[in-house]
Amino acid sequence: MDNLLHVWWVWLCAALALALIELIAPASVFLGFALGALGMTAVVALGLFTNTSVLLALFAGLSLLAWIALKVAFKSQSSSARIVTRDINED
Q1: Is the pTM of this model over 0.90?
Q2: Cα separation, 65 vs 62, whole angstroms
Q3: pLDDT per residue of the chain (91 residues) written in tens, 0 to 9
């Protein structure tokens, strides 16, 4: 299991799986993890870190940064219902 974290395509498969989970259960949580795993694909492919603990900590950090960036980028969207105060049928 430890050696699988050092293979770039495993991170790519994890990113795709997390993105599919986000499509099935849209909670805006799994997309941050998917983007973190996608970033880890590049990190592992370049061979920047070889320690498993560092890889997992970096994945957590990248996922947190991706989640924060998504919240900032899509903060203008409101999921609240529109409150109607005037009836269009009345004069």
Answers
A1: no
A2: 5
A3: 668 889 999 999 999 999 999 999 877 789 999 999 999 999 999 998 989 999 999 999 999 999 999 988 887 666 677 777 888 887 6
